[in-house]
């Protein structure tokens, strides 16, 4: 069934295929053409958290994780991910990143991460902020996995949660 022929539970027609920006009229995937759009100052902020054992958070706080400085390494990973988002999200444009701010905070049983990305260009940067958060949290997991594992090598108390976009702004210069 073509997209334009589908209906939802209320019987309303779904969006026409030609209204979908990442699909051609034939249903093929395509990158959106942003060539005619004006440059705008853009900012996106994303956040998320990794749930850990309280003893792991204390070890991070005391810089007692064997692999090294967990949060410094996670910051580097987050920034690298922001800069390489276009390589991992298939329809993302390569955009000029003008600034990346990372903030990690330690709770009792979690590490919270917030990444703000700024660009001046033709398309937004929320995917870059999300990539920064998820990679930053994955780096935390990688750095602490030896102390997070249970006796069976599993991670029953570890989880990345609540990843979301907090803010998206666009300002035409």
Automatic annotation (TrEMBL):
<comment type="subunit">
    <text>Homohexamer; trimer of dimers.</text>
</comment>
<dbReference type="InterPro" id="IPR002820">
    <property type="entry name" value="Mopterin_CF_biosynth-C_dom"/>
</dbReference>
<feature type="domain" description="Molybdopterin cofactor biosynthesis C (MoaC)">
    <location>
        <begin position="31"/>
        <end position="170"/>
    </location>
</feature>
<comment type="pathway">
    <text>Cofactor biosynthesis; molybdopterin biosynthesis.</text>
</comment>
<feature type="binding site">
    <location>
        <begin position="127"/>
        <end position="128"/>
    </location>
    <ligand>
        <name>substrate</name>
    </ligand>
</feature>
<dbReference type="GO" id="GO:0006777">
    <property type="term" value="P:Mo-molybdopterin cofactor biosynthetic process"/>
</dbReference>
<dbReference type="InterPro" id="IPR036522">
    <property type="entry name" value="MoaC_sf"/>
</dbReference>
<feature type="region of interest" description="Disordered">
    <location>
        <begin position="1"/>
        <end position="41"/>
    </location>
</feature>
<dbReference type="InterPro" id="IPR023047">
    <property type="entry name" value="Mo_CF_biosynth-C_arc"/>
</dbReference>
<dbReference type="GO" id="GO:0061799">
    <property type="term" value="F:cyclic pyranopterin monophosphate synthase activity"/>
</dbReference>
<feature type="compositionally biased region" description="Acidic residues">
    <location>
        <begin position="1"/>
        <end position="18"/>
    </location>
</feature>
<protein>
    <recommendedName>
        <fullName>Probable cyclic pyranopterin monophosphate synthase</fullName>
        <ecNumber>4.6.1.17</ecNumber>
    </recommendedName>
</protein>
<dbReference type="InterPro" id="IPR023045">
    <property type="entry name" value="MoaC"/>
</dbReference>
<dbReference type="InterPro" id="IPR050105">
    <property type="entry name" value="MoCo_biosynth_MoaA/MoaC"/>
</dbReference>
<keyword id="KW-0456">Lyase</keyword>
<comment type="similarity">
    <text>Belongs to the MoaC family.</text>
</comment>
<feature type="active site">
    <location>
        <position position="142"/>
    </location>
</feature>
<keyword id="KW-0501">Molybdenum cofactor biosynthesis</keyword>
<dbReference type="Pfam" id="PF01967">
    <property type="entry name" value="MoaC"/>
</dbReference>
<feature type="binding site">
    <location>
        <begin position="91"/>
        <end position="93"/>
    </location>
    <ligand>
        <name>substrate</name>
    </ligand>
</feature>
<comment type="function">
    <text>Catalyzes the conversion of (8S)-3',8-cyclo-7,8-dihydroguanosine 5'-triphosphate to cyclic pyranopterin monophosphate (cPMP).</text>
</comment>
């Amino acid at each position: 069934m073509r997209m334009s022929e589908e209906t939802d539970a209320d019987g309303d027609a779904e969006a026409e295929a030609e209204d979908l920006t990442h699909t051609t009229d034939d249903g093929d995937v395509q990158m959106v053409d942003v060539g005619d759009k004006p440059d705008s100052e853009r900012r996106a902020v994303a956040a998320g958290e990794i749930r850990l054992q309280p003893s792991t958070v204390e070890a991070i706080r005391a810089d007692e994780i064997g692999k090294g400085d967990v949060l410094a390494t996670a910051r580097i990973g987050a920034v690298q991910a922001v800069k390489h988002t276009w390589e991992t999200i298939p329809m993302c444009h390569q955009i000029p990143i003008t600034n990346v701010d990372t903030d990690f905070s330690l709770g009792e049983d979690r590490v919270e991460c917030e990444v703000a990305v700024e660009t001046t260009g033709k398309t937004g940067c929320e995917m870059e902020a999300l990539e920064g958060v998820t990679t930053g949290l994955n780096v935390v997991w990688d750095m602490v996995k030896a102390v997070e594992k249970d006796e069976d090598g599993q991670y029953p108390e570890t989880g990345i949660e609540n990843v979301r976009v907090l803010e998206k702004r666009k300002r035409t210069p």
